[in-house]
Amino acid sequence: METAEKTVRKTFSWPIFDETEVEAVADVIRSGKWGNPDCGDLVEAFEKEFAAYCGSKYAISCVNGSVSLRLALIACGVKPGDEVIVPPYTFIATASTVIEANCVPVFVDLDPDTYNISPQAIEAAITPRTKVIVPVHFGGQACDMDAIMDIAKRHNLRVIEDAAHAHGAEYKGRKLGSIGDVGSFSFQSSKNLTAGEGGIVVTDDDELYAMMNSLRNVGRIEGGQWYDHYNPGCNYRITQMQAVLLSAQLKRLEAQTITRDENGVYLNQLLEQIDGITPLKRGLGETRHCYHIYIFKYDKTHFNGLSKVEFTERLAAEGVPCFRGYPHPLYKQPLFQNKNFMCYALPDDVDYTQVHCPVAERACSDEAVWILQHAMLGTKEDMESFAEAIRKVQSEV
Ligand SMILES: *Cc1c(COP(=O)(O)O)cnc(C)c1O
C-alpha cells in the first residue's frame, strides 16, 4: 500500500542562527569574562539595547521569565495576602510567582474573541486587597491596555505586563511591555527571542528599577559594598554568553516579527473561509501581533463531531506544527485545587475548586488550536498549505 503524502512536507526549525551567534559566544569564551556584573559589560549592553527596542527607560535581565515576574511583583510592594489578578489561560508562572510572593492569584475570565484577559472581568474582581493586575499578551496579541490602565488608575493598582509571548509586538504603536508599570519577558527556548533561557523586565520608573536591580543581584544596591545586602534578593544574573547571544538574536527580531504578523493576517483570511474555523479577532488596538502562537477556534460540529484533540492530532499528522494547548485553565491544576502551597501562606478562605471561567474552560477543552511561532516564519505558500491541511482533515471526517 502507498503511504499517503503529508499535506505540509516542509519542516520548520527554531532557533534561527548562523556563524554570527557562534562567533559572538566564542569571543566571550576566549575573553575569559563569562560572568556579570563584576567582570564584564556585555549584559549591560544588551539591557540597553532591549530597553531602547521597547522604548523603555530601563531593562534588567535575569535568569528566566518566571523570576522576572517575581522581581516585578516584589518591587511593586505586594504584602502577604494581597490579591493579584491574573488570567487562567497562560503558562503556570504567571500565577505560581504570585504564590511565591505569598499573594493570592485571582483568576478572571477571558474575552472570547481574543483569549486575552477581559477588562470587565478584572473590574468585577477588584476588592480592597487587590494590588496588581497581570495582563498576559496571549500568543503575542495585545491586551486591551487602554481599558486595563484606566482600571488600574481608578483603583490605584500596579500593572505588570506578562509579555513572555510578546517581544516586538505593539499596541497603538507602543511596544508591549512598555505600557504598564513593568513589562516582563522570557528568553526560554520556545520564545520569539531566546538564549535557551533568560528573562528581562523593563520599566520607566526609577524606584522600581532600583529595587528590581537590587533583587536580581543578591540585594546589593548601586554604590554599596559587595558584601552589603539590603533587600531579599538572590543571584538571578545571566551570563555574558547569554547576553551576546541575545544581542545577536535581537537584530533578527524585527524582521521575524514582521514576517509572522504578515503571515498571521494572511492565514486569518484563508481560515475565515473554512466552516467551523474562526481565527481570533484582530483590530482591537494591536498595531503589530508577533504570533508567538497563532490561535484559531475549532468547532467540531463542522467536523462531524471530531474532538479537538483528535483534530489536532490529525492536523499534526498532515505536517502542521500545531498543538491542542493547555488542557485545563490554571485553577484546575492540582497545585491550586489541592492548595499545595507548602511554605507559602494563603488565607484559608481561598478555594480554587469554586472558580469557574467558562471562556477559558471552553478554549482548553473544545476550541483553541495553536500553530507555533516558528511555523509562522514560513512563506505565504506555507500558510496556504496549513489551510489546505485543515480542509483535507475536514473532507475526511
Ligand atoms: C514562558 C512563560 C513564562 C515564564 O518564562 P520562563 O522563562 O520559562 O520562566 C511566563 N509567562 C508566560 C505567559 C510564558 O509563556
How would you describe the overall organization of this protein?
One of its GO terms (biological process) is polysaccharide biosynthetic process. It is an enzyme of class 2 (transferase). 36% of the residues lie in helices and 14% in strands. With 397 residues, the protein is α/β, with parallel strands linked by helices. The two termini are 21 Å apart. The model has no long low-confidence stretch (mean pLDDT 96). The structure holds pyridoxal-5'-phosphate (PLP).
Short précis:
The modification N6-(pyridoxal phosphate)lysine is found at residue 191. This protein is of the alpha/beta class.
Describe the secondary-structure layout.
Blueprint: H1 19-31, H2 42-54, E1 58-62, H3 67-75, E2 83-86, H4 93-100, E3 104-107, H5 119-125, E4 130-133, H6 145-155, E5 158-162, E6 170-171, E7 174-175, E8 182-186, E9 199-203, H7 206-215, H8 240-271, E10 277-279, E11 286-288, E12 293-298, H9 308-317, E13 322-323, H10 334-337, H11 358-367, E14 368-372, H12 380-396
Parallel strand pairs: 2-3, 2-4, 4-5, 5-8
Antiparallel strand pairs: 1-9, 6-7, 6-11, 8-9, 10-12, 12-14, 13-14
The structure holds pyridoxal-5'-phosphate.
CATH C-level class of the largest domain is Alpha Beta
Using only C-alpha atoms, the radius of gyration works out to 22 Å
**Strand count, sense and closure of the main sheet?**
7 strands, mixed
CATH level 4 superfamily of the largest domain: Type I PLP-dependent aspartate aminotransferase-like (Major domain)
Query: What gap, in angstroms, lies between the N and C termini?
Result: 21 Å
Task: Give the fraction of residues assigned to helices.
Answer: 25-40%
Q: Name the overall outline.
A: globular
Find the CATH topology of the largest domain: Aspartate Aminotransferase, domain 2
| Helix count from the secondary structure assignment | 12
CATH architecture of the largest domain: 3-Layer(aba) Sandwich
Spatial sequence of strands, sheet with the most strands: 1-9-8-5-4-2-3
Oligomeric form: single chain
Write the element-wise H/E pattern from the N-terminal end onward. Answer: HHEHEHEHEHEEEEEHHEEEHEHHEH
Number of domains: 2
Number of strands: 14
Overall structural class, as computed from helix and strand content, comes to alpha/beta
Strand content: 5-15%
Unreliable stretches covering 5 or more consecutive residues: none
> What small-molecule ligands were found?
pyridoxal-5'-phosphate
Mean pLDDT score: 96
